[in-house]
Amino acid sequence: MDGMTPPAAVTCITLATRLCALNPSCGPVRVVAVDGPSGAGKSTFAARLSAALDGAPAVHSDDFPVPWDGDPLAWWPPLTAQVLEPLWRGRAGRFRRYDWRCGVYAEEIEIPVVPVLIIEGVGAAVRTAPAAFRVWVDAPQDVRRRRAIGRGDDAAAWDRWAEAEDRQFATDRTRDRADLLVDGTRVRG
């Protein structure tokens, strides 16, 4: 994990203070993008950061239906229309969370106009994201794959998804534009 910053070097509390001092990036909101490949530890890191930000809301790519064989950025159009555009105009965003276990849309989630919003998932820090700060979380592929299989992901589907992620990240050069690199092997739930 050459060049990665361990969470101990930059605590979430220190990072939260730093984030609150940034200029807003989406209307009055500071968007923090937590990106990286599947199984790297993004969700766990986002949860810790949310807690350090006194419960700042987090929107996850997994809140939207994206098929395993689909485009890793398929969640961006609904996220943009339902959450980011209203926030840009100073209004609350709303979306229906997708329940992957049941295969249906679940409750409506309201994202109020807040100082900081965390967006977490593959492609969260894409070049066009209105991010005030970009975090890249990564771990070796064998670790990520083991985590994904352990949480119930289909191995063959995960392998195809990992290839699609790799192509997306290479095209976008996402990691290269990160403000903070986090070693996902040190991020634990």
Helix count?
A: 5
Largest sheet: 5 strands, parallel
Rounded Rg: 16 Å
Our estimate of the beta-strand percent is: 15-25%
The 3D shape can be described as globular
Spans of at least 5 consecutive residues with low confidence: 4-8
The third-level CATH topology is: Rossmann fold
**Main CATH class:** Alpha Beta
- Strand arrangement, largest sheet? 2-5-1-6-7
What average pLDDT do the residues reach?
92
**CATH superfamily name?**
P-loop containing nucleotide triphosphate hydrolases
Order of helices and strands: HEHEHEEEEHHE
> Could you say which structural class the secondary elements and strand pairing correspond to?
alpha/beta
CATH architecture: 3-Layer(aba) Sandwich
What would you say this structure looks like, in words?
- With 189 residues, this protein is an alpha/beta fold.
- The chain has one domain: Rossmann fold, CATH 3.40.50.
- Helix content is 32%, strand content 21%.
- The chain is built from five helices and seven strands; from the N terminus they run H-E-H-E-H-E-E-E-E-H-H-E.
- It has helices at residues 12-20, 42-52, 76-88, 141-150, 155-172, and strands at 30-35, 58-60, 93-99, 104-111, 116-120, 133-138, 180-183.
- The strands form two sheets. It has a five-stranded parallel β-sheet with strand order 2-5-1-6-7, covered by helices on one side. It has a two-stranded antiparallel ribbon with strand order 3-4.
- A hairpin with a 4-residue loop joins strand 3 and strand 4.
- The longest helix is centred in the last third of the chain and has 18 residues, at 155-172.
- Residues 4-8 have low confidence and may be disordered.
